[in-house]
Amino acid sequence: METISKGKVIIIGGGLSGLTAGVYLKKFGFDVEILEKNLNVGGLCTCWTRKGSLIDGCIHWLTESDYGELNDVMKEIGALGDNVPVHHFDTYIQTYVNNKVVKFPMEYDQLQKELLKYAKGNDKKKICTLIKHIKSCRRDLLSPGKPYWNWNVWDKIKFFFRVIPFVPVMKYGQDIDLADFANSLESEELRFFFANTILPRDYSMFSFCYTMGGICAHNSGVPHGGSATFAERIANKFVGLGGVVTTRAEVKRVLVDENTATGVEMMDGSVKNADFIVSACDIFYSLENLFENRFKVKILEDAKQKTKCFKPFSIFLLSFRTDKDLSQLPVHTFYQCEEYEVLGQKEKSLYIKHFSYDDTFVHDGKTLVQYVLETDDIVFERLSKMTPEEYKQFKQDFAAKITDLIGKYGQDNFGELEFLDLVTPLTFPKWTHSYRGSFMTYKLSKKNRQFILRNDVLPLRNVALAGNWLMIPGGVPVAIQQGKFAAHTIEYQREHIDSFDVEKAKKKLDIPLKSIKNENVFTR
Fold first, then answer.
1. Which residue, 168, 100, 97, 87, is CA-closest to 134?
2. pLDDT: is 152 or 422 the higher one?
3. I want to staple 448 with a disulfide (CB 3.0 to 4.6 A). Which of 39, 166, 212, 309 is the partner?
4. Using CB atoms within 10 A of its CB, is residue 7 exposed (0-12), middle (13-18) or buried (19+)?
5. How far from 206 is each of 194, 342, 451, CA to CA, in Å?
6. Burial per residue of 385-394, b for 16 or more beta-carbon CB atoms within 10 angstroms, e otherwise
7. How many angstroms separate the CA atoms of 457 and 466, rounded?
8. DSSP alpha helices (H): ranges in 196-285?
C-alpha cells in the first residue's frame, strides 16, 4: 500500500547536513529533493584526483567513530557500518624539536610518561593535570537526538548529568589557549610540542582536552575510504529511501510569500515549488543571497563585529605523493624549522600528515602526503585582493617554498615528494560559498564561547536551516547533528503550521550574542 507523502521538501545544498536531513525527512514520510550546485555531493567533505592520485580534503579524525549516540546516528544514515573499517593509531603525533622526537602515544599512561621525559620544574604538575583532564573527556558532549529547543524536562536532566564530568575541564581550559599553556612550560621541547598540534594554537585548552580525550579513547578514528566515500554512503542511503539528488543545480533565491516559502528560483530562471525548504549551505550565503538580506540574525551580526573574538578558521592544504614506505611513521608529524612567512603569518613549524594506512590514497605505489597550515580570514582577505596573475604566482612560490622546507627537514621520513595540488582559503568559497574562506566555522578560543542557533531562527513557517554555522566550531559531527535537527524542525513545523505566530517567531532573530565572557577580550 502506497503511503501518503507529508509534503515536498527541497534541500539546498548536498553537504553532510543536507544529506543527513534528506535521510531523516524520507524516514519521516516526505518527498525530498536535494539541489547541489556542484557535480558531486558532500560539500567540503570531499576528495578529488590529481595525476591519478586521490586527495582527501576533510576528515582528519571523526568524533564518535566507534561508539556513542552520534555513532548510532552515523550508522543510521549509512555513513558508518560494520563493513566500514575505522583506522586507529598507536602513536598519533610525533614532533621533531632540538634534535629530539616527542611523541603522542594513544594510551593515557604512556602519553603521560612520554611527556614527563621532557618536563622541567613545574612542568610535571601541569602535565599530570592535563592528562587527568584529557581522561575526563572520553565521552562526547554532542547530543544528536533532537533539537535543544525542543527538549523536555527529562532531556534536560539527562544532559545535565552528561555535562557534570566536563565541568572541571571547562573551568580549567576555557580561559587559556594552547599558546598560553605552551608558554607556561619550562621545557623548550614541550613548549614547541603544545604550540604545534593538530589544533590551532589559539584554540582553548578545553577544546584540546576534548579532542584528545576522544582520540585517546579510540573513539575518534578515521573511516576507511576517505571523506568523499563517507559522504557518498549517506547519499546512497538517501537515494535508496527514494530521495532525489539533482547536481549542478544552483539555487538563486528562496521564493517567499508573506511568511511562507513557496519554492526556489534556480540560476537558469526556472522555479521549483515546495511545501518546505531546508537551507543547508553556508548560513551567511543563505541569509545574504538565498533570502536576499531579508533577515538579520543578531547573534551572527554581533559575531561579525567582534573580529578579535570570532575568527573564521581556514587552512592551506598542500598535497604531494611519495614512493617511500610510510607505514611505520605516525600519521601527524611536526618539525621545528627556520621561520617562514605566509602573507604576514609567521611560522616556525611544518605540519605534515600521510595516508599510508588507507590504500585508497596509494596510487601506483605512491602515497598521499599533505602539508597543513591553519590560518584565518586575515590571510583570506589578503588573498582576495590579489589579481588572478598575482594569485597564480603566489601559489607557485608558496608550493616551492614548502617543498624546499620539507626536503630540508623531512626528507629522511618522507623521501622525494612529487607535487599534486594546493588548496588555499580562496578555494573554499568557490566550492561551497563558505564565509570568508572558512573551512569550518569560527575558532573556539579563549576569547569566545560556543553559540548555538535554532534551526527555525528565521520567521518563516516552513523553513529550517542546517549546517556547521548553527553551532561553532562546526565540523563533521555538528553538520550531521544539525542535518538531523533540521529534519525534526520540518516535522515540527508541519504539525504546528496552523498555529505559527510570526511576531513570536521574529523575536528569535533578536536573541543577543551571549558567548562573550567580558568586553576585555576585544583588546587582547
1. 168
2. 422
3. 309
4. middle
5. 13, 28, 15
6. eeeeeeeeeb
7. 11
8. 205-216, 226-240, 283-285
What's the pLDDT at 115? 96
Q: At what angle do helices 69-76 and 476-495 cross, to 10 degrees?
A: 70
d(Cα 137, Cα 128) in Å, to the nearest integer?
15
Give the mean model confidence (pLDDT) for residues 97-121.
Answer: 94
* Residues listed for the chain: 524
Question: How many Cβ atoms from other residues are within 10 Å of residue 288's Cβ?
Answer: 14
Hey, what amino acid is at 448?
Answer: N
Three cell numbers at 173?
Answer: 581550559
Q: Is the pLDDT reported for residue 275 higher than 70?
A: yes
Residue 195 is inside which H or E element, if any?
Answer: helix 188-195
C-alpha 75/C-alpha 92 separation (Å) is 25
Q: Which amino acid is at 82?
A: D
Residue 370 pLDDT exceeds 50: yes
Among the residue ranges 5-9, 124-128, 162-166, the one predicted with the least confidence is 162-166
Spatial separation of the C-alpha atoms in residues 316 and 373, rounded to whole Å? 5
Angle at 38 between CA 37 and CA 43, to 5 degrees: 95
**E strands present in 58-177:** 86-87, 91-97, 100-105
Query: How far apart are alpha carbons 192 and 294 in whole angstroms?
Result: 48
Q: Indicate the angle between helix axes 123-135 and 205-216, nearest 10 degrees.
A: 60
256: how many CB neighbours lie within 10 A of its CB? 17
Asked if 409 contacts 340 with a C-beta cutoff of 8 angstroms, the reply is no
Q: What global pTM score does this model have?
A: 0.94
For 155-209, how does the pLDDT look when each residue is reduced to its tens digit (9 = 90+)?
889 888 888 989 999 999 989 999 999 999 999 999 999 999 999 999 999 999 9
DSSP assignment, residue 522? Answer: G
Nearest partner of 284 among 259, 301, 307, judged by Cα: 301
Task: Report how far apart, in Å, the C-alpha atoms of 378 and of each of 284, 313, 366, 374, 426 are.
Answer: 18, 10, 35, 12, 12
Burial class (CB in 10 A: 0-12, 13-18, 19+), 14: buried
Instruction: Indicate whether 514 pLDDT > 70.
Output: no
Q: How many CB atoms lie within 10 A of CB 89?
A: 18
State the CB neighbour count (10 A cutoff) for residue 478. Answer: 26
Alpha helices in 65-136 (DSSP H): 69-76, 108-116, 123-135
SS3 state at 507: helix
**CA triplet 392, 475, 340: central angle to 5 degrees?**
40
| Number of other residues whose CB lies within 10 A of the CB of residue 107 | 13
- Report residue 218 as a C-alpha cell: 579510540
The grid cell for 392 is 597564480
Q: Residue 291's Cα: distance from chain center in Å?
A: 24
Q: What confidence tens digit (pLDDT) does each residue in 469-512 have?
A: 999 999 999 999 999 999 999 999 999 999 999 999 999 999 88
What value does the mean pLDDT of the chain take?
Answer: 93
Q: How many other β-carbons are positioned within 10 Å of the β-carbon of residue 156?
A: 10
* Cell reading at 30: 516526505
